[in-house]
């Protein structure tokens, strides 16, 4: 009996050495879970006297070799396909022959078919996406390597702030007119007239920018005096409105009024009807000076134009021709990039801005249907703000040159492959505050792109990055849990299969229920504590030596009995 007891102890110690040695050998194995050997003592209950207190033990047996599924430390790497489970759960693998395996080792690769696989070739399971929508069927995770097609821009969101401290050009003159103060007017012209006595007098006309766009209040002095003998001004309130720096047909006669041409002159602020009719009354000055009547009339054809002080014609390359502007990229149906320019030009003092748009530096294109030039953005488009600085609307028509009519802002014909293409422009959230002019631009188009790389987020989503700066969700990893993790059966290659004691796998998505999250660019180290294993190695060696001593002693006793004479 002593021999059997010693032999069982030697065998158990050898098994202890094997388990400990296996733990030590896999100390650097990703996702490895250390094992623990568990012993049972042996008693022969079939001999005479069984059940009494005098039974001598028969040795030891290995009751179980169990694994400890505590988490290992996370080691971060430079490989986006290296994955670790942070928390509860196992990666799900297709082990072949319709069976599943489960692992914590996330050293994944891509095979020739684009499947996500382990080093042993097992395919990682998950939920693939179609057009960005993640499906519900568990299948082999696939990373499509095909390029993504281009998408034409179909909408633009433009949120601007236009500095409320900006001014029209030339700026409105708020100060009262004073011929001795050049800051109270913009420019002048003179006229010599004779009185009833044949004496000549100099009439000076002063043009001061009013609140309305391209409109000036006109004042007059005679021989430097602004009032006559009665104290009345030599000129009653008079207004003059001029065309801008571009030709426009205001009266509908088919002939464009030239740049800076006089459109209206009269005693009241101009109306849309005045501009449409090109109402032009002579500018008259008169009164008595030193008891002598003096009168002068300035024919509309002689009125001096403001071409030397007014804003120049719109030119996207000339910042002085607009109040604020910027350029951004949009994309046509082939993915070709086009530069969209948007420019705001302040019109008077009534919180109104003309909006101009260019595509690739041009304001217009050839309409293939009519063969004529057509603007990308309709002419005379304006945006307005309320007194609180909030956007109030978009219109066609700039008072007093036209009656404002609400319009939907849109860029037409920007795509050379389809001139019928339209990009709606949404200015929601735009403001006119006393801050620097800025904008936030968003559009939904992009060019074609090649796959540049993939990565995983904490929810296990497989995110692809393309050379066109786009990203796409290609799928989502699956994780599995078990009612009894200790019941899993080792299957090699740092994987396990479900056993009768573990129960079936409960498969789900990371960060749902009790499942942990996924850490991309990281691997879970083994949970082997080398210090503890080295101590266990000493214990196993000591036990082996002690049991060998028992065997040696038993052998000596036996030899003594055999040698009796």
Mean pLDDT comes to 93
Counting DSSP H or I runs of 4 or more residues, the number of helices is 3
Quickly give the structural class. Answer: mainly beta
CA distance, first residue to last residue:
24 Å
Q: How many distinct domains?
A: 4
The percent range for strand residues is 35-45%
* Global morphology: rod-shaped
Radius of gyration over C-alpha positions, nearest whole angstrom: 46 Å
Beta strands, count? 40
Low-confidence stretches: none
State the helical fraction.
10-25%
The largest sheet, given as strand count, sense and whether it forms a barrel, is: 12 strands, antiparallel
InterPro entries: Falgellar_hook_FlgE_sf, Flag_bb_rod_N, Flagellar_basal_body_rod_CS, Flagellar_FlgE/F/G, Flg_bb/hook_C_dom, FlgE/F/G-like, FlgE_D2, LlgE_F_G-like_D1
Protein name: Flagellar hook protein FlgE
Domain Flagellar hook protein FlgE D2: 161-242, 309-446
Domain Flagellar hook protein FlgE/F/G-like D1: 84-153
Overview of the molecule:
The chain is rod-shaped, with a radius of gyration of 46 Å. The chain has 4 domains: 1-70 and 528-563, no CATH class; 73-149 and 450-525, no CATH class; 156-166 and 314-443, Flagellar hook protein FlgE (Tick-borne Encephalitis virus Glycoprotein, domain 1); 187-302, no CATH class. The protein has 3 helices and 40 strands. The strands form 10 sheets. Strands 5, 6, 10, 11, 12, 32, 33, 34, 35, 36, 37 and 38 form a 12-stranded antiparallel β-sheet that branches. Helix 1 packs antiparallel against helix 3. Helix content is 11%, strand content 38%. By secondary structure, the protein is mostly beta strands. A hairpin with a 2-residue loop joins strand 5 and strand 6 (99-103).
């Amino acid at each position: 009996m002593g021999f059997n007891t010693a032999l069982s102890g030697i065998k158990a110690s050898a098994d202890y050495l094997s388990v400990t040695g296996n733990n030590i050998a896999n100390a650097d194995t990703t996702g490895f879970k250390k094992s623990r050997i568990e012993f049972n003592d042996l008693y022969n209950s079939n001999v005479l006297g069984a059940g009494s207190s005098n039974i001598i033990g028969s040795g030891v047996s290995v009751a179980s070799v169990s694994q400890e599924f505590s988490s290992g430390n996370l080691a971060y790497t430079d490989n986006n396909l290296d994955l670790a489970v942070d928390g509860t759960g196992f990666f799900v693998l297709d082990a072949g022959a319709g069976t599943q395996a489960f692992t914590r080792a996330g050293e994944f690769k891509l095979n020739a078919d684009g499947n996500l696989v382990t080093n042993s070739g097992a395919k990682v399971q998950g939920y693939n996406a179609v057009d960005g929508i993640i499906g519900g069927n568990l299948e082999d995770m696939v990373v499509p390597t095909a390029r993504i097609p281009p998408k034409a821009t179909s909408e633009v969101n433009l949120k601007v702030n236009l500095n409320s401290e900006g001014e029209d050009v030339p700026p409105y003159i708020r100060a009262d007119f004073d011929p001795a103060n050049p800051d109270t007017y913009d420019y002048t012209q003179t006229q010599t007239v004779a009185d009833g006595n044949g004496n000549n007098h100099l009439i000076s006309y002063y043009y001061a920018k009013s609140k309305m766009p391209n409109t000036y209040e006109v004042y007059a002095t005679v021989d430097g005096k602004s009032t006559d003998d009665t104290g009345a001004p030599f000129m009653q309130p008079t207004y003059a409105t001029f065309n801008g720096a571009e030709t426009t047909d205001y009266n509908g006669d088919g002939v464009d009024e030239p740049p800076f041409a006089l459109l209206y002159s009269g005693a009241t602020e101009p109306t849309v009807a005045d501009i449409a009719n090109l109402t032009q009354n002579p500018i008259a000055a008169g009164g008595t000076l030193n008891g002598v009547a003096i009168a002068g009339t300035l024919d509309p054809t002689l009125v001096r134009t403001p071409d030397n002080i007014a804003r120049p014609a719109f030119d996207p390359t000339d910042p002085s021709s607009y109040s604020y502007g910027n350029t951004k990229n949009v994309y046509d149906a082939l993915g070709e990039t086009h530069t969209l320019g948007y420019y705001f030009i302040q019109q008077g003092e009534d919180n109104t801005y003309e909006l101009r748009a260019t595509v690739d530096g041009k304001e217009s294109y050839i309409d293939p249907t009519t063969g004529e030039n057509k603007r990308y953005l309709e002419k005379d488009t304006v945006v307005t703000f309320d007194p609180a600085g909030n956007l109030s609307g978009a219109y066609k028509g700039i008072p007093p040159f036209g009656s404002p009519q609400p319009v939907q802002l849109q860029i037409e014909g920007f795509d050379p492959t389809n001139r019928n293409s339209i990009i709606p422009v949404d200015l929601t959230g735009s403001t006119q505050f006393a801050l620097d002019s800025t904008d936030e631009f968003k559009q939904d188009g992009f060019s074609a792109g090649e796959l540049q790389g993939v990565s995983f987020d904490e929810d296990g989503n497989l995110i692809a990055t393309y050379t066109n700066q786009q990203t796409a969700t290609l799928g989502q990893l699956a994780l599995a849990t078990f009612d009894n993790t200790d019941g899993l059966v080792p299957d090699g290659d740092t994987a396990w299969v479900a056993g009768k004691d573990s129960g079936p796998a409960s498969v789900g998505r990371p960060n749902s229920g009790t499942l942990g999250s996924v850490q991309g660019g990281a691997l879970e180290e083994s949970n082997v504590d080398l210090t503890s294993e080295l101590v266990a190695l000493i214990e196993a060696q000591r036990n082996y030596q002690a049991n060998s001593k028992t065997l040696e002693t038993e052998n000596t006793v036996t030899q003594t009995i055999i040698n009796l004479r």
